[in-house]
Task: inverse folding
C-alpha cells in the first residue's frame, strides 16, 4: 500500500498514541516466566509485540485478550516447553535478542528466526556474552539469524561490560542471568533504556560514572499487573507534526516519560519548540505526562553526538524532520548503530531528505545538512521501516503539494492506526 499525504492547513485536537513497544515486549516475556497470570493494560497490539506473543505460544504459553487487557498464563522460570517449529520473531529485533537470553538457559533446544530484514541484523552482540555464560548458540557465518540455541544444564554468571550502548544486549544478559549460577553483573557506560531493570525490580548502582545492574539466579517471579504507558517514540511523530504545521495545537495524553527515553524533548527545547509537559505522574513504576505542542519557529544549529545518542536512537528519523523545518544546520554523529535497525536508517534518512531538496552529507556514523526554504513534496521510500514511513509521512504534512509514502503499511509494526490518527487531527 502507498499513502498520499497532502499539505495540512493545521492540526488540532487531543490524541493518545499506542502502548510502548519496549515495555509491551517485556511484559509478555516476564509474564511468561513468572508464576501465575500476568494482567497487562495498554499493551501495544502491533506486529512486533504480537511476534513476541506468538513465539511464547509456540513455547507452550497461553494468553487471552479480554476487555482491552492482555492476560499471560505464566509457567514460572522453568515452565517453557520445547517448540517443534522454528520461532518466528518477524521484524522484531527486540523479540529475537531478548528472547535469546531466556532461551539460552533452557533445558531444550530452540531455533529462532525472522523476516527478510531481521535475518540481516547483527546477532554477535548477544551471542558473545551469552556464549561467555556457557550458552550454546549457532548462527550463520555472518552471525545473523536463524539462531539455534542448544539445551544446557545451567549457565554461569559473568560480569559483562557492554561494548555498545544497547538495551537489547543488556536485557538479553539480564534474562540469561536468571538461569545462571551466581550473580550476573552488567556494566553500562552510557545509559540505555532501563525498562527491564524496572520491570524485574533490579536496583542499579552507580560507580565512577558507570551503572552496574546485578541479577541473581532463580529469583522467583510472581505474576503481576503491568500498565503500559503510551510510547514516547510514537508521540514524537505527532509532537513534530504540531511543531511544523502552521496554526496547530495538539495534546497527546498519557505519554511515557521514562528519562532514558525522552532525550528528544530536550533536543526540541534546544530548537525553540513550544512544548508544555503537564499532569506528570507515576503509574506502574513508569512516569507519564500529557504533552501540549503548538506550531513553533524552530532554529537548529546543533550537533547531536555522544551519550545522548542511545537515548534518542529511535527518534533520529523524526528529529531530522524537525531540523529540516528549522533554520540552521543539523548534524548527527556517533549513531553508526542506526545502520543496523529495521533498515539502514542513515541511508534511508539521507535518501528521503535529498528528495525534499536538501543537500545532505552522509557519514559512517551520521549525517549533516543545512535546512532551506521551499522544500519539495515527493515520493518517499519507507524501505519497509515503520519509523521511516512515519517520519516522512509527517514531513509531507508541511510540504507544498502531495507526497507519496511507498509501502506505508509497515507502520503496523509499532503504530497500526498511524494514518488514521494523522487524518483525525486535520478534521
Ligand atoms: C529497544 C532498544 C533499542 C531500540 C529498539 C528497542 C528495546 O535497540 O532501538 O527499538 O526495547 O530494548 P538497541 O538496544 O539495539 O539500541
Result:
Amino acid at each position: 500500500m502507498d499513502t498520499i499525504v497532502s499539505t495540512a492547513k493545521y492540526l488540532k485536537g487531543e490524541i493518545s498514541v499506542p502502548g510502548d513497544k519496549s515495555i509491551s515486549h517485556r511484559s509478555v516475556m516476564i509474564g511468561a516466566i513468572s508464576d501465575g497470570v500476568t494482567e497487562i493494560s495498554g499493551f501495544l497490539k502491533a506486529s512486533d509485540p504480537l511476534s513476541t506473543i506468538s513465539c511464547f505460544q509456540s513455547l507452550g504459553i497461553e494468553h487471552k485478550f479480554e476487555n482491552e487487557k492482555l492476560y499471560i498464563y505464566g509457567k514460572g522460570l522453568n515452565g517453557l516447553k520445547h517448540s517443534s517449529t522454528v520461532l518466528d520473531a518477524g521484524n522484531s529485533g527486540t523479540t529475537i535478542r531478548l528472547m535469546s537470553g531466556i532461551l539460552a538457559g533452557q533445558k531444550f533446544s530452540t531455533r529462532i528466526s525472522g523476516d527478510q530484514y531481521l535475518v540481516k541484523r547483527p546477532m554477535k552482540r548477544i551471542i558473545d556474552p551469552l556464549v561467555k555464560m556457557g550458552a550454546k548458540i549457532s548462527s550463520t557465518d555472518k552471525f545473523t539469524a536463524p539462531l539455534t540455541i542448544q539445551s544446557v544444564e545451567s549457565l554461569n554468571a559473568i560480569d559483562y561490560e557492554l561494548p555498545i550502548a544497547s538495551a537489547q544486549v543488556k536485557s538479553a544478559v539480564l534474562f540469561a542471568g536468571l538461569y545462571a549460577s551466581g550473580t550476573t553483573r552488567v556494566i553500562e557506560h552510557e545509559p540505555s533504556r532501563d525498562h527491564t531493570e524496572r520491570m524485574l525490580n533490579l536496583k542499579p548502582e552507580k560507580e565512577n560514572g558507570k551503572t552496574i545492574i546485578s541479577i541473581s539466579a532463580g529469583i522467583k517471579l510472581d505474576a503481576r499487573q503491568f500498565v503500559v504507558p503510551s510510547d514516547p517514540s510514537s508521540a514524537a511523530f505527532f509532537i513534530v507534526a504540531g511543531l511544523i504545521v502552521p496554526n496547530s495545537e495538539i495534546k497527546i495524553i498519557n505519554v511515557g516519560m521514562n528519562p532514558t527515553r525522552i532525550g528528544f524533548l530536550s533536543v526540541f527545547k534546544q530548537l525553540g519548540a513550544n512544548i508544555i509537559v503537564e499532569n506528570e505522574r507515576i503509574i506502574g513504576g513508569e512516569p507519564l505526562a500529557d504533552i501540549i505542542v503548538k506550531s513553533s519557529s524552530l532554529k537548529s544549529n546543533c550537533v547531536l553526538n555522544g551519550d545522548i545518542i542511545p537515548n534518542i536512537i529511535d527518534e533520529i528519523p523524526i528529529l531530522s524532520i524537525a531540523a529540516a523545518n528549522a533554520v540552521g544546520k543539523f548534524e548527527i554523529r556517533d549513531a553508526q548503530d542506526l545502520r543496523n535497525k529495521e533498515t539502514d536508517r542513515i541511508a534511508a534518512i539521507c535518501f528521503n531528505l535529498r528528495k525534499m531538496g536538501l543537500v545532505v552529507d552522509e557519514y559512517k556514523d551520521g549525517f549533516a545538512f543545512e535546512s532551506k526554504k521551499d522544500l519539495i513534496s515527493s515520493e518517499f521510500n519507507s524501505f519497509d521501516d515503520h519509523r521511516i514511513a512515519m517520519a516522512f509521512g509527517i514531513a509531507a504534512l508541511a510540504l507544498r503539494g502531495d507526497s507519496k509514502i511507498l509501502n506505508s503499511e509497515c507502520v503496523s509494526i509499532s503504530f497500526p492506526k498511524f494514518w488514521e490518527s494523522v487524518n483525525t487531527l486535520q478534521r
About this structure: The longest strand covers residues 274-283.
